[in-house]
Amino acid sequence: MRTVSRFGLECLPSGNVVGMTTVLVAVDDSDTAVDVAKGAHRLFGDDASYLVMHVGEHAFVGMTWGYPYLIESPGLMYPTNWPGTQNTVTPSGVDLAEQQATDVANAASIPDATAVGTVGDPATAILLAGHEHHADVIVIGSHERSWFTRLVRGSVEHDLIHDADLPVLIINEPHTAI
Question: What is the pTM of this model?
Answer without folding.
Answer: 0.69
